[in-house]
Specification:
about 130 residues; mainly alpha
């Protein structure tokens, strides 16, 4: 489970940086973007500095907590997982303000990637 969560955090971080770079290139924070593609290509290193630590230091422990809580449930695991990810995605609102929508999107993307990886069949080993 922990290996899957690490892989989920890595995939989520990479996808988040790519998506955020297309939605909000770094030059758009300082005014008009004159060369969109140049700005998009320069954005990933900047966003990686913020996204990777946030996903690994905040998202990964929260995901482990949510999974620990929801595995004890008999029914409604899917719904409570989504609600948990959304709640913890919005929770740092006081720190992020405008970027809370990104935090919410990243947390739901984390859930989606984790769900896909958990449903993926493990290869059978022959002994």
């Amino acid at each position: 489970m922990f290996k899957r969560k690490i892989l989920t955090a890595l995939i989520t971080s990479i996808l988040s940086v790519i998506i955020i770079s297309f939605i909000t290139p770094t030059d758009s924070f300082f005014g008009e973007v004159h060369n969109y593609w140049k700005s998009v290509l320069q954005s990933p290193p900047v966003f990686s500095v913020y996204v990777f630590p946030a996903v690994f230091l905040y998202g990964l422990p929260v995901s482990l907590l949510i999974e620990k809580i929801t595995t004890k449930m008999e029914a409604g695991q899917l719904q409570f997982s989504i609600i948990g990810y959304a709640f913890f995605g919005v929770l740092p609102f006081s720190l992020l303000w405008y970027f809370t929508i990104y935090s919410l999107g990243i947390s739901l993307l984390f859930y989606l990637v984790d769900y896909i990886l958990s449903k993926k069949k493990k290869p059978e080993t022959v002994m």
